[in-house]
Design brief:
By secondary structure, the protein is an alpha+beta fold. The chain has one domain: Roll (SH3 type barrels). The protein is about 25% helix and about 35% strand. The chain contains two helices and five strands, in the order H-E-E-E-E-H-E. A five-stranded antiparallel beta sheet has the order 4-3-2-1-5. The radius of gyration is 11 Å and the shape is globular. The mean pLDDT is about 90.
Length: about 70
Amino acid sequence: MIEDTVAGVYLLRDPDFNPGDTVTTAGMTATVASIGLRKSRFTLDSGDTAVRANRDVESNWTKRADPQEE
């Protein structure tokens, strides 16, 4: 729980990781729906919501390019 909270603080302060961004992390590519202190929520292409522990997200994520910018 402490590790998730520490990772959550880093994610909340990271200017490159925001709700609305499309990222690949924790074995999925999805849109960041919300970032909490312990968990982050993601919207999958199917419309389902996936919840991941922040320690799993913060350790390895990649921001995907916005298709409108390409």
